[in-house]
From TrEMBL:
This is Roadblock/LC7 domain-containing protein. It comes from Streptomyces xanthii. It holds the Pfam family Robl_LC7. Residues 9-100 form the Roadblock/LAMTOR2 domain. Coiled coil: none annotated.
Amino acid sequence: MIQQRANFDWMLKELAESVSNVRQVVVLSADGLRIARYGGDPDAADRIAAACAGLQSLASAVATEIPDSSGKMNMVIIEVDGGFFYLMAAGKGAYLAVLADQFVDAGMISHQMRDLVIRIGAHLTSPPRRNGQTV
């Protein structure tokens, strides 16, 4: 279970402020619930978290078609008009999502996301839920 998520707030802020042009950082569970966020609107963070559940599922399904793949999604990057979206596995059942504008340093944001996951990934776990209860 994610413990004391408020303790992650400063780390999310550090990630957002360490790379220019980051707009929002969201930590979410595999079933699409927002766990923590920095920047942006809370409702937008909830929508991002919900969309990410489908995206990570889709990426994992596609990964099974790659020979010698475990089927585990590690990172997805989407480029759209005006910016980028990054989704990275961050712990058992948890993910880190970043929205950035078109001028973000793509290599730097990927590097900073990996660093953050290494630092806090062991603490970012979200056990599966059934009927709203942790299983």
